[in-house]
Amino acid sequence: MHTVKLRVNDGVYDKLILLLSKFNKDEIEIINETSDFTKNQKYLANELNEIINGKAKFVEVDEAEKQLEKIIKKHEGNI
Predict the structure, then answer these.
(1) CA pair distance 6, 68, nearest whole angstrom
(2) What integer pLDDT is reported at residue 34 of this predicted model?
(3) pLDDT tens string 30-58
(4) Domain ranges of the chain
(5) How far apart are the C-alpha atoms of 13 and 34, rounded to whole Å?
(6) CA distances (Å), origin 7, targets 18, 29, 62, 76
(7) CA 71 from chain center: how many Å?
């Protein structure tokens, strides 16, 4: 699967969305670029750069499980 980012003129935007909506979700999914999407994209790009540059901190599986258990216990009453 591929992801394509387009800058579309306001005059053709509605027509393009109408065309794309003709496909089913398995073929084409329209991903709206919200501020959360952009924030997550920047965060993940930074994380990848840290890995590539050798600056990333990695933990063993056991340590990751311990950290997750602490987070789960902290938030389990909020469900």
Answers:
(1) 38
(2) 81
(3) 887 788 888 999 999 999 999 999 999 99
(4) 10-78
(5) 17
(6) 16, 17, 45, 42
(7) 21
